[in-house]
Structure formats: structure tokens, C-alpha cells
Amino acid sequence: MKESNPQVPVSEFLDFFPVVELPVTITADLHHTFSQRNEPFPRTVIDQYLVPLEYGEVDELTEFVPCFRLPNTFNMHAIVYWKASLMQYEYVLVSISEQGTVIDKKVIAGTSTDGDSLTTSVTTIEDDFEILILSGHTQEDDFAKFTGANSKAARFELLPEGQIVSLDQ
Fold this sequence. Notes:
Blueprint: H1 10-14, E1 24-26, H2 31-37, H3 43-50, E2 63-69, E3 76-85, E4 88-97, E5 102-113, E6 117-125, E7 130-139, E8 151-158, E9 164-166
Antiparallel strand pairs: 1-6, 2-3, 3-4, 4-5, 5-6, 6-7, 7-8, 8-9
């Protein structure tokens, strides 16, 4: 008979994410700080909470690091975790109901490459929950040269109900 894994309560999952003060800026290498300061996820938490968020894109090489939780979100929780997979590193914002149901999810920063080009995004989350994402894109032979011409900005907002909506209409 196969043993079943016990369910981890949502409150214990949220304990992995310390509350931060806003505004907060997320840069490509900030995950190093979080991996040193925060307790790592046990496999049961990854399987129960993170694998379902990633739509089956998790393999044995995928890594997760808990980053932080946003303050003062009232009837929901907003967390950020870092996900590392082959040639792709992402900071993911997820809003979760009090019962643990996912409301919305958005990749808000990170670095990815397809072998020919590199895209890097940094993010600032303001104290009014506005999210500014600045992304730079460059070709492989020019990785060190990001310019305004190959960069773009996007603005989002985390609404009180947990939806993450674009402000760039």
C-alpha cells in the first residue's frame, strides 16, 4: 500500500514567505539573498503548492526559492517565489485566497535565453501595489549592451481581490 503525503496547511506554506516593506525592487540576482535568509521548501510543499502552478513544467532540475509576501493584502495573500529551470529564471507573483485557492499568477521578473538572445526583467512593486516591469532584450553576441531601444516597460496592479491587471491599455 502506498503512503500518502500529508497535506500542508496554507498557513504553513505562507510561513516560508517573510513579509517585506514596500516598495521592493526585484533584480536578477536577488534570489541569492532569499536562498540564504529563507528556509527552503520541502518536497511536500513543492508538490502540493508549486507544481500545480507550473502546469507540469517541473522536472528534477527545477529549483524553487521562497522570496517574500506582500504586506496589508487583507482578504488574500500575495507571495513571490523564484523558479529556476533550464535557461530560464523567473520571479513569480501569486495571489492566494485565505483558503489557499490561487486567484492569479504572473511572472514579474527574471532572465531567460533561447540560445540566441537574452531577456532580463527587473521589477518594482510600489506601496500601492502597482508593479513596474522593465525588460531588456539583446542578441547573444551583444549580451553586455542593453539600451533603451531594445527595452520596454509594462505596468500592472495587484487589485484588492487578487487579480493582477495591466495598466497599459
